[in-house]
Structures are given as C-alpha cells and as structure tokens.
Amino acid sequence: KTVAALEAGIQSIFTKIGCNTSAISEMLGTTGVTESNIMQYLGVIEQRTNELLQLWKNKNTQQDVPATTGPLAASGTTNINIEPPVIGDDDDSDEESSEDEERPLSRDELKAKTLRGLNKREGQKMSKNAKKKEAKLGKQR
Q1: If exposure means fewest CB atoms within 10 Å of the residue's CB, which of 28, 68, 112, 138 is most exposed?
Q2: d(CA 80, CA 70)
Q3: How distant is the alpha carbon of residue 133 from its chain centre?
Q4: Would you say residue 112 has pLDDT above 90?
C-alpha cells in the first residue's frame, strides 16, 4: 500500500517536472515506476530538478546583475595599510619560563598569565599607535 502510493507520487513528480520519458524507457525497458526501478526514477528526477534550479538561477542573476560590474574605486586610489604581527619572544618573563614548563598551571595562574600577556600586547599596540601619530604630526609641520 505504501509502496504503491510512493510509486504514484514519483510518477507524478516525474511527469510534472518534464523528465524525458523516452530516455528512462530506453534505460529500463519498461514504462512506469516499479519497486525495482524507483531509485533510477529518483535519480532522473534529481538530475532534472538540478537542471531546473540552474536555469532559474541563471535567469534571475541575468536580470539582477548589470553586465559591467567592477570595483567601486579606481585602481591605486585607495591606500591599503597592512600591519604585520610583532615577531618576538612571547614569554612574559624569564622567571616563569623554566617553572611553567615543568608543571601544569592552575586555573588562577593561567588566568593571571593570560592577562599579563594581553596587557603587554595592548601596551605594544598603544606605543605603535603613538609613534604613528607622532610621525603624522611631524609630516604635517
């Protein structure tokens, strides 16, 4: 009963989306969906559905997108500033280096070490920004 309803539904979808009936007849040698060829019919339905979706996508993108699209700004008119990462020793201090390598850190120790590292990096960023501002002010004078 369930298989018969499934076969009827698959046959209905097959004809509604315009699948090539002659191709499936040549491939399977039968007409109509049966329990033995359901997977082949579903494969053809999937292929036709993908074709229809691709056609729909192409039609909609052609209408929405103008033929000549490019960058909004002319080449060379915008400055790109890339700041490379600071390369250096990330250890906070020499006093902790040998001690930390030999034992695991507690949660509080790990939190404290992380905060020290973040504060150190923030201090480095602030000093870089200050140097940049001084350089800009020097050029303006």
Answers
A1: 68
A2: 18
A3: 37
A4: yes
